[in-house]
Write a structure and sequence with these properties.
Blueprint lengths: L19 E2 L3 E13 L8 E6 L8 E4 L3 E8 L28 E4 L30 E4 L6 E7 L5 H7 L2 E7 L1 H4 L9 E11 L5 E2 L24 E4 L2 E2 L2 E5 L2 E8 L6 E5 L5 E6 L2 E9 L1 E4 L4 E7 L8 E6 L18 E8 L10
Parallel strand pairs: 2-5, 4-9, 10-15, 14-22
Antiparallel strand pairs: 1-2, 2-3, 5-7, 6-8, 8-9, 10-11, 10-12, 12-13, 15-20, 16-19, 16-21, 17-18, 17-20, 21-22
């Protein structure tokens, strides 16, 4: 399906509000739901699964040293999976529920019973639970460096399908030390969740049901070695644009794709200033013309648009081959295109961030 790139604005994921705040802890409830989401203005709404009815899920902000409790609630009403389901895989045999979820907080330092063990899955309303299920409310101590983590589904045998269906979101740990650095913040700190998808003609999600030219002994639906979509999605929109002022921005980027690597650069030729990685801030900033991001990796960047003329359009490009790094090069009009920055005037004329 051919879609016009760079016509839809970039959505900014909402920040989740806690249910309860105590002196030394905070409590959230996050619901997994099935709903319809429009990935592009030229596409009809697409049936997806997601946290709190949005793609990606809401940002969960946390303070270092303050314990976070989360009840991840499965309210998905579907009886069957949205995507081709291989019944020959471990935990996917006939008789097992297809709609199973469990949440893993990727990068968190937690106890095993809050880590989202693949066999700790459960169905809607906890009607059926996996053999490793022990608790409904997960505990995240946040006793680690300030960093951007991400939460995603982790159910045994179907993680790739559940994440592709939409079950992914951002979790940020903040600290006094980080705030003291006076980095761009508020509306100038932007999470970017980059994924790839392919759509059927009716707008539904496409996922391959088998390898190309499968042997006759293969089941009708079989897991594939990897899958890369032909449409790049950022914060739930296909090839969006984002208006930026003539100043510095902080972009916290997650590669939430199943297989695809991204080697990103700016069409303006300017540098990224990388200030952090998966584990938090670097010892000192690094200037780079391009950055490679593997699936599940995060990078923390500053991009300075101060000297870019008003009206300048800057494309965030991708040159990584798929499979990485020996497959076909990306098409500059589709999977070689990520998003666009459109420079506008800084109304205050000031930028006090460092």
């Amino acid at each position: 399906m051919s879609l016009t790139p760079l016509v839809d604005p970039l959505p900014i994921p909402k920040v989740l509000k806690p249910v309860e705040i105590c002196k030394d802890s905070v409590y959230y409830e996050v619901r997994m739901k099935d709903f319809f989401h429009q990935f592009h203005s030229e596409l009809p709404p697409t049936k997806v699964w997601g946290y709190e009815g949005q793609i990606p899920g809401p940002v969960i902000e946390n303070e270092q040293g303050i314990c976070t409790y989360v009840q991840w609630i499965n309210e998905i009403s579907d009886e069957k999976h949205l995507l081709p389901y291989d019944h020959t895989l471990h935990a996917c045999h006939e008789g097992m529920p297809e709609v199973r979820t469990v949440v893993h907080l990727h990068g968190a330092e937690v106890e095993p019973d809050s880590d989202g063990h693949p066999d700790a899955w459960y169905t809607r309303d906890y009607e059926i639970c996996g053999p490793s299920f022990t608790r409904k409310i997960y505990k995240y101590p946040n006793k680690q460096r300030a960093a951007m983590l991400w939460y995603h589904d982790h159910a045994l045998g179907i993680t790739r399908l559940n994440v592709y269906a939409g079950l992914a979101g951002i979790y940020i740990i903040r600290s006094k030390e980080e705030r003291a650095l006076n980095l761009p913040s508020g509306i100038y700190e932007i999470p970017l969740v980059i994924q790839d998808k392919t759509f059927n003609e009716d707008g539904s999600l496409f996922y391959p049901k088998n390898v190309d030219n499968p042997p006759p002994t293969y089941p009708e639906v079989s897991i594939t070695p990897g899958f890369a979509g032909d449409t790049i999605i950022v914060n739930g929109k296909a090839w969006p644009y984002f208006e930026v002022e003539q100043r510095k921005y902080r972009f916290r980027i997650l590669n939430g794709s199943n297989e695809r690597f991204y080697r990103i650069s700016l069409s303006s030729g300017q540098d990224f200033i990388q200030i952090g990685t998966d584990g938090g801030l670097l010892e000192k900033p690094v200037r780079l013309k391009e950055i490679t991001i593997a699936p599940s990796q995060r990078v923390d960047l500053i991009i300075d648009f101060t000297d870019q003329p008003v009206g300048t359009n800057i494309v965030l490009t991708n040159t990584a081959r798929t499979p990485f790094d020996f497959g076909a090069p990306p098409d500059p009009n589709t999977d070689g295109l990520t998003m666009q920055f459109r420079v506008k005037e800084n109304p205050s004329g000031k930028d006090t961030s460092t």
